[in-house]
What does this fold into?
Amino acid sequence: MPDFCNQASCRTVARATLCGMKRRKRILIGLGSLAAAFAVGAGLSFYADQATVPFLVTATPEDSIPVSQPEPVLSLEEAFPHVIAPRSTLFSTLRQLEIPAPTIHQIVEAAKPVQNLSRLHSGIRFQTVYGSEPTPQLSSIHFRFSAIESLQITKVDGSWVAKKITEQVDLKTVTFSGLVSSSLWESARRAEMDPNLISELADIFGWQVDFSREVRKGDRWRLTVERKLVKGEPIGWGAILAAEYENAGTIYQAALFRLNGEEMGYFDLEGKSLRRMFLKSPIRYGRITSGFNLGRFHPILKVRRPHVGVDYGAPIGTPVRAVGDGTVALAAWSGGGGNVIKIRHNSTYETAYKHLSGYAKNVKKGARVQQGQVIGYVGNTGLSTGPHLHFEFYQGGRFVDPLGRKFPSAEPVPSMHLGEFKESANSLLATLPPWQNPEVSAREMASDSSNDPESVSQ
It folds into this structure.
């Protein structure tokens, strides 16, 4: 075997290899690449017998182990980079992308059987794909209507073909629990839960708890809800499956009952419907500023005059809900009541909503409304000292105090399905998370306050 140890061109290499067997061992990082560079530069070849361990090993493609890389996740703007701007049209948007007018016409015609592209509104995002010809031509366009629905139009053998795509929606159950310290919304924020779910929780228990006046510090809640996923990414919420709300020491329970794929409503463990004939409040969140009082002193007229309703203080524009199903008997200006809506629920019950700033769309005399439907908005019209809703309740043509009334429930679970419901309800309620510990939550809130400069009292 030739001895290259004294050749200048090879000294660096030799130090790490053959001479290293005779001399003091040294460890050099990255020496393999350096040795290869010297070897090529000097035009040398190294020979080794079977007993010699080569210092440079080159792996063949067959020997290499591929390293799997995670597929990059594109943002909505990256996946669908183009958007129809306000006060623009699809045609003008595509022309700005230098797509020929005849091509746009062909795309619109091809899509007509499944989607009318001429009616696309602003904000719709889309992507374009071009071929690899010397002069690239548009080969596909993909419109995104929602996380679930999209439309792809592709050129196949010279003709455009449209295909409506509906993504599979998977459901995953998740749980949340919270403790009220200042408000329901704040408890949702602390639980890192979408506040919209608190609104749904309030709707579920809206017949048992008046969330505008009966929420107390220390109230607790917990729920199990469906989360909608498309390709593993959250896109929204499904139904609340089970929930409990503890108000002033009383625990209310709710379980959703589905029969043959149809939601029948929320019931307690005995199968009684949580729904009542009337909601406990026409405003989801507000405060009572004046109750039913037959001897109240009128703040404007300065005389004692019966206050035959309940006043809810709320900002102008706060949505007002119909407390029950019925027909609009009046939706107009009415003297000191300002803008008024009156609803006839049946031959016995009527309700009135006064001092409104305006009416919801299609709410007019003779219109049918449903329980919980927004019918108008809090205002300050008529004889009013500030923004509020004056709510009146009539039974048999006489004013009654709605806060002291108990109204009949909706239909319970049919007896033939009661066993099935109880089994389902027990399973759903078993999925609820543990209640929040008030002592632990109090310590967490104190810790948050000490670390939050904005929470320091002034």
Q: What stands out?
A: DSSP finds ten helices and 20 strands in the chain. Residues 1-65, 449-458 have pLDDT under 50 and may be disordered.
